[in-house]
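User: Please check token order:
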Amino acid sequence: KEDFKTFKDNLYLKIVRNYLRYRWLLIYLLGSTGVVHSSYKGECLKKLDNISQGAYSCEGIVSYRNSDCGYGNRITLFADYTSTREYVNSVKRFIKDGLIQSPKEFYNSVRPKGKNPNKILDSLLEEGIQYLEYRSIDINPFSKGGISLEDLEFLELFNLYLLFKEESDYKDWQIDGLENQKNIARNGGLDIELIRDGEKVSKVQWGLEILNEIRDINHILNLGKGELIDAQIEKIKDYKKTNTYRFIELVKEKGYIDSHLDLSKKYKKEAYAKRFNLKGFEDMELSTQILMKEAIKRGIKFEVLDREDNFISLEKNGKLEYIKQATKTSVDNYATVLAMNNKVVTKKILDKKDVRVPKGEEFTSIDEGIRRIEKYVNLPVVIKPKSTNFGLGISIFPDGGGKEDLTKALDFAFSKDNTVLIEEFIKGKEFRFLVIGDKVSGILHRVPANVKGDGKHTIEELIEIKNKDSLRGKGYKTPLEKIEIDTSALLYLKNHNRDIYTVLKEDEVVFLRENSNISTGGDSIDFTDIIPNRFKEIAIKSSKAIGAKICGVDMVIEDYTDERSNYGIIELNFNPAIHIHSYPYEGKERNVAKDILNLLGFKESKCD
């Protein structure tokens, strides 16, 4: 007969009441504040033992934060949890009586929260309880994020227990619950007794009873968390397996400050090594992860629609966008996409706009190509499929090639497409310009896969060492790809009188292939602040010429330091990767994702 709001509130309040009854177990299992530094102000320090440099503790401690030494109200306050209205009224009485100044100063270990944080009590009455705030959970020093996945999974099980556990009619449950909290926080590592419905009970006995009930819930609901529950049971049986005991031993060994700093440095190193990943989505393409991470920062809700296809949606304030692989968006039309995928069409469009492109011709059969290949012998040329990605099927002859080599290159290109282009080789360095809207968001120079000698290791060993870099992986889930020793690499080394067993001199750099694609193990070097504006304007002009809002412009510049230098646009790329600009091998990391979100209409706020 209840309305839904009342029904939901009553369920939340039942969990609150049970949390206050059973929080002692959570404090014991997740407690981690068993050491006080000498700078702590208060009477508590006088009662503790000096266990190491600047560190104080006592036998059996679990959580000083949840003890009398922790942060709380000056006097004990018990709110009324029979209904949302009674809870609100009791907090208002605390304020009226001068015990606290605002609802935020009611420092209870659990607090019902409403929708509007600026109207805490009124919001509870109007919209009901939206969630519960748990305030008795210590930061886990052995987890980089302060709370481990296992901690969160156990909290989920604990919540279910609080939901299902029937309540007794014992009147002083709040008084006993608080007493149990303080007792377990101060003496939980000892063989103590707690109070259950007015009667004393062994800490271990009661803890095992609760955990066995949680095990039953896990079994009935088929949650698959048996090992997690077993680990908590071991903690109840053996205090030495708790976070608190482990951390006290660490402080005894290293001192208070050094133990914290050592962990901090370790976590910083781990975080930096994997700074590019979005936790829980590491299996998706990195460009998509980067966009989702930036969306989270802006309060944009994302949903993964097809994980394998890297298809997501973004939504905020009624605005909805569908995005695939970070840069396939609604801002580019289908005709633009088709034009960029066709290198012949791309060249003709750019040529009409007076953008320099390499001269050449196309062949639709291998026989036609062989008949006309003679005039390209010994000239610097590039032979490539008309439609290709990731450098597939491309052969480059910067110093020219014989008829036999050119013919093999034609055959290789035709294996990837029905139409093949042969173009002049433009002298200079190749750069990838990432154009988003009306600006260049990043510029990279891509260096072919290479290794640098140290006078000791073989090329094969140097590749193995370089591949250990945390930036390198496979499948576009890391900023760089691992270098593979494939047929192409072996052939390239052979043509340069080397093999994988060659030991390189110190600082001697050897390339492993001709093409500079990141997908084949190349290095990305940021040049965004170095390239003159003229070439940035050419990149934007090229993108606009074909009608693209998001475009990867591949440009070769003879001398990038000279604004008047010769250049040539090699190709325009639809769906350019953003991760190579966000996390280059060398140079400044660029926040490209913010430019994409801005382009899509998710404007930055002052808070961003």
